[in-house]
Amino acid sequence: MRGYSFFQRASRAFNDYPHLPKILVLFTVSGGGLAAVCHTAFADAGQDDIKKKKVVVLGTGWAGTSFLKGLKDPSYSVQVVSPRNYFSFTPLLPSVTCGTVEARSIVEPIRNIVKKKNFDADFKEAECYKIDTVNKKVHCKTTQPSHLGGGIEEFTVDYDYLVIAMGARANTFNTPGVVENAHFLKEVEDAQRIRRTVIDCFERASLPSISEEERKRILHFVVVGGGPAGVEFAAELHDFVKEDLAKLYPALKQYVKITLLEAGDNILNMFDKRITAFAEEKFARDGIQLKTGSMVVKVTGRDISTKERSTGQTVIIPYGMCVWATGIGSRPVVMDFMKQIGQTNRRVLATDEWLRVEGCNEIYALGDCATINQRSVMEDIAIIFSKADKNNSGTLRVDDFKEVINDICERYPQVDLYLKKKQLKNFNALLKNSEEDAEINIEKFKTLLAQVDSQMKNLPATAQVAAQQGSYLADCFNRMKICEANPEGPMRFRGTGRHRFHPFR
């Protein structure tokens, strides 16, 4: 009787306080009271699971891992899908090619990150091959070797929110022979393959039957692409050859040659000119041959054909190993998704300043697979003016802009860049620059801001940008409910109220 009374009281407590978490306790007793408590516990647990929003993260690179690490809200259920079950510190990949850093030192298992989360989180080693926005499903297939048996397994994952952080692939520009004969430097496996190939080149060149001309060809290392990856690899390879391999193969050091091919006029053209000048001078001192204005048109197993912009002639360059580091391109699944949502005329996925894919409210894209499509001021000039012109007078004074100045500068970051370029203290200074205390009409407003959009710039596809985007989006997800009730972002110029979050910067 005493045990039966306990279960009666427990059942009453479950019904009186439905918001409390339920605990399932198993006892070996006779009677029907236990069954009632068990059913209540299981039913409530199921309801808690239904309430959780399903977040699917595609990719375990800088963006996806940063988002996963930053996400803390237990109201989400997270599913991570990636063909790679680890995160790699990609800026150190050139060091892995030369053995300066071991591959195991730059990787972190994703499952170690997942198991530390205080909410439902799981990882599946698979590749996403299709995104179904209508049914909110992601179609995936396994990537494990076929010799494990069973063939390729396919499955689908449902989502409420989808985070696309799949990165990008090496861009070959459809150059014949690149995929078959060149090395890429995107993954840890690529770096390890390059390291083996460098050693193989030296071992083959050391054979007594190899002619001197063939030895020169084998020990000619060509890097295609003058961006950060290509420049850093060329520098690492030079140090590896001069400091390490020259001691192991002293008779071969006179045959070693490193050439960097760049289609543009300078290497590192996305950085400050002083950095470009320093790198070019350093290469000249180290004996690394730099050929600018050389566009690769074909790659075979033994030589590279380039078209020289200065002369228009085609030059044949024999080589032993070629590393292709010319830039990035979209993955096939991302390109298919772009066609599905009508972004066929773009190179990568376009998002707004809150990292939402344009036209898809529940889908976010970050990292190398996406770019922020910053709105231009001139596109919204009439709306901005009307927001400030509360009296609908058609003219405004400087004071009338007080309420929207901060929102304008936050919504359109090119305004701040333009003010700095013109050495103006603030937006008021730009308006007053026209005529002191004069009234401004829409045409004059357009004239004042006509050059602002020239300062619009796309963010570079770097690890720093991807990591910051992941942290930003995780913070937005953590404060989703708070910011829906109390929006903190800039004014909605094309609507009413304010945006939920501050835009990504």
UniProtKB/TrEMBL annotation:
It is found in: Mitochondrion inner membrane; Peroxisome. It catalyses: a ubiquinone + NADH + H(+) = a ubiquinol + NAD(+); a quinone + NADH + H(+) = a quinol + NAD(+). It is an enzyme of class 1 (oxidoreductase). It comes from Anisodus tanguticus. Its main location: mitochondrion. Its EC number is 1.6.5.9. Residues 376-411 form the EF-hand domain. It is a peripheral membrane protein. Pfam families: Pyr_redox_2. PANTHER family: EXTERNAL NADH-UBIQUINONE OXIDOREDUCTASE 1, MITOCHONDRIAL-RELATED (PTHR43706:SF47), NADH DEHYDROGENASE (PTHR43706). This is NADH:ubiquinone reductase (non-electrogenic). Belongs to the NADH dehydrogenase family. Keywords: FAD, Flavoprotein, Membrane, Mitochondrion, Mitochondrion inner membrane, NAD, Oxidoreductase, Peroxisome.
